[in-house]
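chain below, 168 aa
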Amino acid sequence: YRTTIDLRNRMAEPDAPSVIKGDVSGGGRVVLRGSDVLTGWRLAAPGIYVHELGKETSQVFVNGRLLQQVGGTVFDGYPENAQSAYRGLHPHDGGIWPGRKSVMAWQSLPAESFWYDRSGRRLYVHTAEDLTDASVRTEVSQRERVLFLENVQFMQVHDLDIEHANTS
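prediction:
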């Protein structure tokens, strides 16, 4: 399922909890995904593909393989937002995003990586796969949350796997 289940401010009773349960009786999995499959890629340069995308993504998967993010922001625009409250956290340990790869020109993307151009609202992907080939599956995280539980009481969640959300 590719959707957001928003259950904020839901209250149940202790003797009658609300239960969300995936049906795994057949031995499979119930998966909630925060990604969408993107088609219609254009070749921008050898091995580099571009797609219009209205919202920043933090994960790109090509045929199930996670690519490396270059640049990117989280929460309130950290680390590019100079006023971010997150700038002061863990300064001696690399901040809250250790190992982040700095922004670079899309033409210089390393192999098997991606970068989101916020001003142009475009996603650039450098991969050995041909993203114009319909048999290549490219999934891009687009939902901040897949299962949103906040200010809830007496709720249970069972037998659901959550994948590809921008915020776990």
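The chain is about 0% helix and 30% strand. The two ends are 16 Å apart (CA to CA).
thats it, cya
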